[in-house]
Here is the input.
Amino acid sequence: MAFKEIDLNMGPQHPSTHGVLRLKLSVDNEVVLRVEPVLGYLHRGMEKLWENLTYKQIVPLTDRLDYLASLSNNLGYVLAVEKLAGIEVPKRAQYIRVVLAELQRLASHLAWAGFMANDIGAMTVLLYGFEAREDVLDIFEEYCGARLTVHGIRIGGVVHDLDAALVSRIRAVLKAIPKRLQDIRTLLDENRIWKERTVGVGLITAGDAVGYGLTGPALRASGVEWDMRKDIPYSSYGDFAFDVPLGQNSDVYDRYIVRLEEICQSIRIVGQALDGLPSGEFSAKVPRVLKVPPGEVFHTIEAPKGVLGFYVKSNGTDKPERVKMKSPSFINLQSLERMCIGHLFSDVVGILGSLDIVLGEIDK
Here is the structure.
């Protein structure tokens, strides 16, 4: 049969592209030749909006970036402002931030496992993942009243202290998650259909992963040991013992395994933080109207999707002159074409899902 190149649109009205991402694909029969992501359907403009708000008013808007890990966005922005303003955060507040951030990582990865499996056709895993995630969201609701756009971190500390009842509830949830995680792995780890759709699919070497700027689980699945919590610790992460799960084959299956292993490590971290929770204040004394000295700063954290960074420039007033966000989903997406070329059109869904992108922080 003669070569015939066909151009296809996948999205933006497509379940696996989350309704706001368009992929322009060129295929030969069903083999992918090129992939071009087309962005901008969400029409946001967050970074420009932030220039007209005070430092404190910006914090709730960071919830709406990666809305599956809103608390991590809070943490990244707040740490940048505190670094620029010279605010010393109490040790107890740092530990509570770690507890909240790791619970958010649990919720994000559990949601990803469900979405990813559902995209490939395993709906039961979606129900299992969301059942476990709901327990984590119940904790957030009790802590600050929100479940999705969790506004739990403030400049100088956290919204509330952790009382004994909430600590007990967190421990109970952590105890229950491994069983549900094992149920998911029993269904998928050696499942013939799952492995045919993931093993050897979406390959990218460690060198290419670094070259494309991949971070987070997608990078570590290529065997590159880089985790901001270990390599450049922040918020007392250096106090906790945990492992950095790595992949070997750099494919969709390895990205799945790495994220599930990260859930186990997050459980370890939260347990240590609760066991060693220091006494003292849960927030520093911050002026009601915060004016930050002139200067600029860039700060990064290890968010569930990868390395999340915030650049903040101050002109000495109560509003920043410039806030720029480095979002992992946006940067990770540029490796999609490299992973898809040579695979079948049907594999694009699984490869895209394995990157765990959220358009809220892409169309920022």
